Amino acid sequence: MKKILVITLTVLAIMSFKGIDLVGNEFKIVGTVSSDFNGQKVFLAKSINDDVMSKLDSTIVKNGKFTFNGVADKPEQRLIYFEEKLMDGQIAIYAEKGNITINVNAEDIPKSVVGGTLNNNALAKLNVMLIEVGEKEEAFKNEHMDNFSKAKSEGDTETQNRIIQEYSKLTKENNKNYIAFIEENPNSLICAELFPVILKDQDVKAKDLKPIYDKMGPAPKATEMGQKVETYLNQMLANEKAMEATEVGKTAPDFSAATPNGKTLSLNQAKGKVTIIDFWASWCGPCRKENPNVVAMYNELHDKGLNIIGVSLDKDDAKWKGAIEKDNLTWQHISNLQGWDEPIAVQYGVTSIPATVILDKNGVIVARNLRGEELKAKVKELLAE
What we know:
This is Thioredoxin domain-containing protein. By secondary structure, the protein is α+β, with helices and mostly antiparallel strands.
């Protein structure tokens, strides 16, 4: 969507507009604008991408008004712009059954106010919130960005982290407002568009968001974005459950897969006094870069009880075996050769590699995702017990 519209007090008058009776899926757009616009050509268009619009209809401003009529089988985002004011921006609306009103802000066209139908009224409500969000973020930027840049140039990580944490609080506050909007406007298509914004917060949990999504009406769920959000939330839920089942303190669930020579090897068969489950792949640059450190640690500590079982996210059998040989990875390896669909990675909630899961002598998970000296120190500590 282009620039979001900003609501003003005039929305009260607009939302009380009764219009004329329409039949079927007809819509009528009535715009009110300054008489200075009389004679100007107005276009109804759809966005192809951020730089291209496709014209659908046009009309002329007369006596400070313009009108479009059409049929909408389903609500769709549309743009309205004035030929002589194209560079000043567009007005975003939903073309949908009913009487749609636009009060054009002649001084700032994208700040015009729309209303009259379910989705356009919801859009107007949302813009009240978006203005507040924008003002808060601008104030935060003015207050902190210079200090953040200075701290970054001076290597002051304490100040950087403090500012990042404060911004995170602001993001979470905004997300609470977005969620409240979804709950209050469950049938508006724009609800589905808010989920990607909320999901930018890395701390957000699908177990909290999925019930919010489930309460939405069928219309927003049926949109392309609604379908994408549902798929993503379901994937997140599965990953969260996997992470809970394999968090620190839990006994590592067993698994098995084929070794490079075609035999089947399980985790229980590969355990040592200390066991590292190493998720990697031949195509993973950071994994291959880390391998020499792991090789050195394994050569030093294997005789003292360290075992490693490599779980590869490769798809190509030859490349997997070639990387094992080239990097001198002499510990045990398994893979289902299914890439990111590797069942063991899914079972352990692994969404990025390299990833490690460290087990003690009892097969209990004691740490995850340690690398380098930190990993070696933890292994030595466990071996000494």
